[in-house]
Amino acid sequence: MMAGSRFHFCFFVLCASLIIPTQCLGDICLPEEHVALFIFGDSLFDVGNNNYINTTTDFKSNVWPYGENFFKYPTGRVSDGRVIPDFIAEYVKLPMIPPYLHPGYARYTDGANFASAGAGALVETRRGFVIDQHSQLSYFKKVDTLLKREIGEPQAKKLLSKAIYLFSIGNNDYLAPFTSNSSVLQSYSHEEYVDMVIGNVTTVIKEIHRKGGRKFGFVSLVPLGFLPYTKAFTPENREEITALVTRHNKALSHALQILASQLKGFKYSYTNLYSFITERINNPLKYGFKEGKMACCGTGPYRGISSCGGKKSVKEYELCGNASEYVFFDNAHPTERANQQLAKLFWNGNLDVTWPYNLKALIEQK
Question: How far apart are CA 336 and CA 334, in angstroms?
């Protein structure tokens, strides 16, 4: 009731000339242009869900120096500061969306973040250590039920149809087989394995669409073969990893085009993260960075060994003096500055980097 009171107080008492159109969802009144964000995926989008699950320190980033440059403390984000969904929330005039598993969060009219560092589209990817994509979908269904109970079915449907559904998923499905004892890639051809990953992604999209979701934002896989992590830990597999990533990105783009022709009202934005990050690795100065290949925090070649914070399997680590000069903060994840550049392209980039709509244009679609 507080939000509604605030808007009406402004209208009647303080600013008769400043009319703020509102929509009232049950007892909650929101601006008419209000757009919720529902966020699925991996460490690029995780804002701290792994803090609340039973996992190892290798899948947590709740130690210093993570978070040092914006929050001034570790939040669970795998960065020195904000990650991509934090900036997107700002662009759509929302507060930052906290992790879904945070015990104090229940403002689902703003959306929810289900992403989990290390997660994949396949349930088998790092099973037992992360919140896989299928489990994230289950959480979303719970939120759908809660919204219907809280604001009524018609208003919940309206909120879900206007919302944006953001996805960063698949990276771990192609890294995990090379960094664990998995023999999965011996059981499938590259084509079969990619089809399996894409099939899991499209199944989740169709389920969200069935619940009323219409507007989706996807990022491609990153250049996994060129991360500090891959170059330090598994350099002999870089070519095979790159071949899988290339095949996945083409298959995802194709699958989205098919879904757009099959699903009523389905619209999407697809952003080419691969070329975005590759450009900054190879030409850091052009984009305002000093270092594109080496991580700010870690140890070993390229600081590519996962040790940032000293609480993981390897304890020793080095830390650069200024993270904003680096493309990568740790061995596989962008700095806040790189995340901000990426989010801007996701939000309002041209057709060279994001298509058939950018997120801003997607929101404006009726």
Answer: 7
